[in-house]
Prior knowledge:
By secondary structure, chain A is of the alpha/beta class. Chain A is 30% helix and 29% strand. Chain A folds into two domains: 2-255, Rossmann fold; 270-489, L-amino peptidase D-ALA esterase/amidase (4-Layer Sandwich), CATH 3.60.70. In chain A, helix 4 (113-126) runs antiparallel to helix 5 (141-154). The termini of chain A are far apart. Chain B is globular.
Amino acid sequence: MLQVNQVSGGYDKKLIVRNVSFHVEKGEVLGILGPNGSGKSTLLKIISGILPKQSGTVTIDGKPASSYTQKQFARKVAVLPQLHAHAFSHTVKDTVGLGRYPHQTGLFSSWSEQDEKAVQDAMNYTGITRYADTPIELLSGGEQQRVFVAQALAQEAPILLLDEPTNHLDIAHQQQLLDTIRNQAHQKGITVISVFHDINLAALYCDRLLLLRQGEVAISGRPQDVVLEQEIRTVYNARVKTQPHPELPKPQMTLLPNLQEETQLFRVKKEDVVVQGDHVLVQAKQPLKTISSAVHNAGMGWYRTFINRGVHFTYNIDDVQKENTEYLRSHGYHLTDTVAMMTAVSPEHVVVEEYQGDFGSIVIAVTAGIGNAVDVSKSWQREDSWYVGTINTWVFINGALAEEAFVQAMITATEAKTKALQDEKVLDPESGTIATGTSTDSLLIASTQQGNYIPYAGPITQLGKLIGRGVYECTVQAIHSYRQAKEEFQ
Amino acid sequence: MNKTLIAYAVSIATLLVAIWLGVSIGAVKIPIETLWSNSDATASNILWKIRMPRVLLAGIVGASLAISGAAFQGLLKNPLADPYTLGVSSGASVGAVVTLFFGISLPVLGAYTLPVFSMVGAAATMFLVIGFARLVDRSMKMETIILTGIIFGSFLGSVLSLMIALTQEELRQIVGWLLGSVSMRGWNYITMVLPFFIIGSFILWLNRRELNAMLFGEERAHHLGVNVKRRKLQILIGGSVLTGSAVAVSGTIGFVGLVVPHMTRMMWGSDHRHVLPLSLCNGAALLIICDLVARTIISPAELPVGVITAFIGAPVFAYIFYKQRRKGAM
């Protein structure tokens, strides 16, 4: 649809864009990214004909852009301007109607039915029909931007160019605007080229990205091939980390601040694990990077308070989230700071150990109730409901873990737990075979992210060895403690 | 749509009333029937030989100034702009004063010598202003053009003063002409100015939608498909044809080109498809009324009409300016 080949250009004699080549297919959304002064807007101005190019070709629909008259060009390419002030007022409808300018010919250039329909459609699509007779300057910034989107849509051009369309808009309006444009691109096959300031927005809404550096193409491709830590670091000269979008297969990045504040070193020690009333409690000095299958704040995050709450085995598990939230609140725990689990075991049966390694140390805390022991390989034969969690394993690591190490730590801890159950000959009461766990076990790995960098936590790594041994020993002890308590009770 | 109809109805009615007042009021009261009956020979004579040409000339001059003012304001996106801001009318004055000063009359042009020289002065000034503005700033921002216009306007003003100082017996004639007047011009002045009025207005009217697009900036107009360079040139030429011919027949009459389009916009909106023709009607009506006041207020003596337009226009303009700023502040 649009082909840019070896284009160079800029202001006067200063070259700002150098040898840029790319092409965009029909219905595709291309984002142009780059730091300030990298030539994003200049490139767009060269394509739209505002600035002359010094060399190279821009081909639109198979013909050189320069072979179109201004009106013909405007029937092919619409441009969404950045917001600016106006000296005279137009009504919204008159403003949108100007989008029909390239379609009107002849001396009197009368307003046709098709013109009216295009304008009405564009206003309906952008939700501004009710403002039709309102002077544009009475609208808010976000609404004005919608008016200009409608103007560009009324132009009915197959190519749409945008220059930082979300500038000065709040996030709701940013989303609205980009949703509109993205949907138009898909429904009507409009080709979109947009300059973006925000890498995350560009990655979310574009099919492909073009990253400019000092006027040249640094890299181009799908968002996941462009939004890379190393590329962003070299082009923008900023420290970033990328991560997947939580719901879409698109990359997102976050800045890594370079703060001058002194980091307060801290460790989690065995003594930090205390029993308080009906729960086991750890309160770290600073948040720990945590991954867990807890009841409250499961998943990955940064938390300071860790609670393993003992409840009676008749605890009604139906509305556990709500009840547990109430519990945390009434005990004065900060909801966003706290990870909480539940166990049917009394909290004083918790087994806590600290293990030293070359890299630092780890603290392990386990509560084990094995009443609902399950052999996972036979569990498909069972038909039971949920129980209150029974083997809860906490692993606190004083070190800086890679993401990979978190996952390996979970595997290692789980394997150690299973081995402990095997050696203790804990049976699945249904199948009569040796159990691998219970039906609702929970695991938590939390790390200070200070000190030595730990890339792996497999079973023969330093950390893996400590976790394997620690979780095994603590689980065995906790099972003994559970059995002992049960005997005393009977 | 309704509002547009009302706008045209009101403007045309005002113009007709102004013409009626213009031809009937004066030292001798002329009844309206004189237009079609020939019973009173003296009245008929006064109407057709003196009043009607004067009223029509005032109308054409007022219309020319107002429509070119409207176009320049739209082009410059500046409600305070008009032919004078661009220096175009100073250029036209210099052209006309040179013709009067040297008593030039070219054989081919004959009676058209004055308006043609005036227009040449207007156009030459305009191209100098644009050429200089382009030298200063290649992208030809409108601010640059306005500033350049002011510089050239002041310079040409001093040239005019110099020529007046050098004149002796023609002094009175030129000074009177500079103050602006439509008196004692006769039908030949109308035939002289009419073709230019029609051509200039037509050129501007052809650019009515382009002016609308340019209100959003030249870059936006470019994106909407307007051939900005060509259209800008057309508008500037159309405006200087109108200004030049108006200055040639009536001298410098200020404020019509500024106030009329402004008030038209405030009342009926800034869509140039309507602003241009409405400004034309309103400008004609305003100058006819002003001329009526000029010749009756201290009769039998007469004031130059430029004095009246400035006297009415300046306070009205100040008021509009104040209101606009207040509106902007809130």
